[in-house]
Records
---
Amino acid sequence: MTAFTYERDLDHPVAAEVEQTIRDVLEGHLTSQGLEGVLVNPGLDHDGDPVLFVHLKFRLVEPGIDLNTLSQSTLAVRRALWAIGERRFPHLRYDFHDDQRMIGTEHW
């Protein structure tokens, strides 16, 4: 455990306020990118620290998903959680359609 781990975070369910904050931030940033659903679960990371696992499901969108928008949404979630006192790190997992194109990867 790290210095930012609190006893209350261990095996602690996700509060409704925390889940709603995550949903509000992500929907505000990613609805235009095809966001269809958000699932939030508590868990432990590879070091045993409490974290939030956030699964994002996307539909196929054209011309593609903007990677900068995804990056900005991650930062916005972390800031919003910190503002309400939630210290668990949110691990975002993106579930994209198999045929989804990403904007900004053309020159990779």
---
Amino acid sequence: MFVDHFGTLLEADRELWRATVRGWHLYSVPLPRPAGDYRTYPIEITELCARRALSTDERARAEQQLRTFVAPHMAAVQALRGS
């Protein structure tokens, strides 16, 4: 999985080491049913977290929600820096 994502064995090994140092552990988990019984989705791997890839609309909504959530915190930080 790491080699596929990072492209080379050297880079995959480096990233796996970095993740392990930060306390992440990779465990293989057997599927309770045959793999053909599951729906498949494209996924993206970010910070060692695999999740279903978002559609364009879902991504836009998520980015807007993030901006809305972060805005008051950023304003507070900027106010502190200004004083």
---
Amino acid sequence: MTQTRQWRQVAPEAWWRTPFVVGYSLTFAAVAVLGAALGSIQFTGSIATVAAIAYFHYRARTTGVYTSDSGVRLRGLARSRELGWAEVGKFVYRPSYSRIPGPEYGSLWVVLADGEELKTSVKVEPEADPAGKTAAILNELNRETRLAHAEMAAARDAATSG
């Protein structure tokens, strides 16, 4: 029996994650203190707000692209989607166009085997940036896709010949 590899986060860092998490962390503390000072009804509302903030904090920390032996998991703030390796065609980088001056970032996209394209929540640095890891992330994801497709083809050939 083969052991299945657990989900592994391939594209862990998003450029917006740090300010987002810091903002929610500060809000978490402020709501808890203010709610406790206002009374029991307000404290209950504060606890519910803090729980919602904690949930979004958790989701923000775990957004990304994950891989395993069975496929790919695209995890965003609001929802996750799992794709089997047979559904995945390749991964590509597409620049995001913004009217705001500053560094340009792009998004990691999944091109499905049927041609449909899915934008992930992962923002990656452009290749012009010396610290950019876009090529490394794409190479790793596309390598895993090719390996999974080769394993599926070998299993299909073994089943038809044997």
---
Amino acid sequence: MPRKPRATPARILTAAADHIERVGLYQGDHLWQPGRMGDTAPCNLLHAWGRGVRAARPRWSQRGEAWEIFQRALFDSLVVLSNQVHGRPVSPVRWRRLGFAEDAYRRTLLWCWTDTPGRTTAEAAVLLRSAAALYRSDADHTVPGCPTLQNMV
């Protein structure tokens, strides 16, 4: 069985953009829609990112380096996307004051961005693709780290 390409933040975010363009953006508290889940139900930005993560995840049979690279790409994609949502790098002071773990705070930013009145599917897809563009999509993500602030403006 052929191996999947290595995970990169760009692959994760591009897959998320593709997913949200396909199913649409959902706003509100009642996201649970029995019978319309997974590939068909409209989703929010956080769920689209999760679909992108699943699309980039290595096969379970792969061992070692593929999973290490995936873990770095997963975290870095969350960081760059939440920074895009926030408009600048998110300060650690924000999650520390609330007693949140960093990834929980960043995921909350994605959820809240979606629920801002007037958000559209197109706007969500553009946000995901602009975050993905901060990474070369053909590069292996072997070194942890995110684009600098200069690359984000």
